[in-house]
Amino acid sequence: MLVMPSLWQLLMPRRRRSASHAAVTAPRPAPSLAELRRKAASFAAWFRTVEPLLPMGGEYSHLRHVGEELPAWLLTDASPGFHDLETQYMPNDEEVRTELARSPTMNSKAAQRLALGVSIDSGGAVFEWGEEAAQEYVAALLRQPFILAFNGLRFDNVVLSRYVNDATARRLHLNTLDLMFWLQWRLGEAKPRSLNTYAAMLLRKKKLELNKFCGPHESIPALWRRGRPEDLVALRIYCWLDADLLRDLWSATHGSAMERRAFYAWWLEDQASRVRRALAATPPATAPSLAFAVPA
Asked: Which pTM was predicted?
């Protein structure tokens, strides 16, 4: 683990322009914590019956961690940490296909392996992490009151699950508020948008463009593997700026504890809908009921 060099702090004033607080939807009715525990337990029992019918290593493995224990972000008003990571490989790279052939039950995202992660703790300190420090990276995230990541439940956490045991992976899930879903709910949208789109909509900012460093058909993992000093510096800045965008987006859209309760109830329903659609697209010969309603 390395503390990020002073270049990051030198760049900071350029990133701290005032954020546009876009209009957000009206607060939803918020269930009690006891009600949320019942809803989550009901969801978990239902998901256990349908999980064997879902594609192996697919989009929904994170839902195994849902249960009666509530996420940390429902239980505190403390400031969160933020993080973003990049991987060594793309899903269709030969190295990923080879590892999945050896370990068919492995999630394909875990096979992409950690290249670089950047975290910003709740006090604002910025840290950089490589694969050799993956376990320390997870431990640092778990020391935060809670953490925000963009598509973190389905991607970042799954990548990091490669380096920790299942109990720690579950703790990471419970400590993560996924800003992608939060913004979808907050803005009342049918589908989530990209980080770049939300940054433009809400902050009038955008992600760092890496096309000056990449070839026309070159991926970020390929840039990292090429390993030229200028490539690695660009990737470090790119990853840090993404994490910093998360902080700005949360500052612009964060809500009350009661709103977070309403969000979690919505998220459970949304995830159930996604699972039902996945199952309906490839109906098995014999299946348990796809019907699921979060109990009132």
From this structure: 0.87
